[in-house]
Amino acid sequence: MKIIRKTYLGKKKTCDVVGSGTGNFILYNGVITHNSALGYNLYAACIPFDTKIRLANNEVEQIGNLINQEKLEILGFKDGEFIKTVSDGIKFQGIKEVEEITLEDGTIIKATSDHKFLTYYLKRGNKVKDKRDDSLLIFEYKRLDEITNEEIITSKDLVKCDQCGRYFTQITQSHLDRYHDGKGEIKVSDLIRLRIANKAKLRKYNKGYKRKPEVGLKISESLTGRKFSEKHKVNLSNSWTNTRKIEQGNRYRTRPIRNKMNKNEFKIFMSNRMSGSNNPMYGKPPSHGKRVKYKDILFRSSWEVTVAKFLDDNEILWEYEPETFYVSQDLSYTPDFYLQEYGIYLEVKGYFRNEKSLEKFNLFAINNRIMLIKKKEMKDLSSILRFINENSTQEKTG
Length: 398
Prior knowledge:
The chain has helices spanning 173-180, 190-206, 213-223, 230-259, 263-273, 302-313, 355-367, 375-379, 382-391; strands at 3-17, 24-26, 32-34, 47-48, 52-54, 60-62, 72-78, 81-87, 90-103, 108-111, 116-123, 127-128, 131-132, 136-143, 151-152, 159-160, 167-168, 170-171, 187-188, 292-294, 297-299, 319-320, 325-326, 332-333, 337-339, 344-348, 370-373. The chain is α+β, with helices and mostly antiparallel strands.
């Protein structure tokens, strides 16, 4: 459901669910929302006392009445199922600014602007055999102040499979054939129905569309008599000339080489040409990707911010991505943190995406003291202090 209205409610007492097994909990109106992960909500994302949540027995209770209860059984959502999960309780998060959000169907949500909710957006598929795949629904948790074209997921946007009891945006025939021998009922959620209706409406609107004459006349009039300075004309001319030179230079630079090679040889040549330090992006951070800002530094993940705050709390000096090292002829590696007082590196990693990433880490670890911080270590960051005590090369100064 899309957000249609936001209202500022002022400062209120707030709290949050801590450490549930599913990583989320369900509000009384079926909205799926993220919870604190490590026992304390480092980003102050929380909901007010008067918000109601669903317990494991599907009963509704105001979250403010459950403060300081430990091992609380609540309802969570995981792998397409609403299941019972045990959280570490409800923690008071202080008095914070709260917003009230109204969705299309009248559902009301109250939360701080940085609280995360499960959302979805449409992503167009790739072309396969000259036919474009249908658009995909992409689900992810997003902060309330980051939700733009995405829509918040509620239980109304899901339908239940009668055979396996799991929830989906739609129950397709392929699902029934694959898992239930073709038995069961095909179902479509309101979310999918709305998407299909919007596509049909768009096709109907665009069919036989012609621009009205007055629209073309209006555009023409807006451009008529527009004057450019001589300096601007020169700049436009130079930019076009330089672009042509660059295109021609790139084209003719590789053509003699390509004429002497077959297709596979040329691919290998171009791959080697862009590998390691030959790549113009070597040692530079990527321009894409989501970043988290802390102390005027853009971190690649919230886990890295959590580690940086832990080091600050323990008065440990650190550098973020201090240097890029060559670990082999073609591989480079940049550790996340360097603790200059102890000569120790830290790598914060949920998982290695591929074998090359793991290989780079292992090669670097041969000659350097480095600690790999995964999900287990994130739950107990004091393990960093133990690693420092066991592996530091010098005593802390000052």
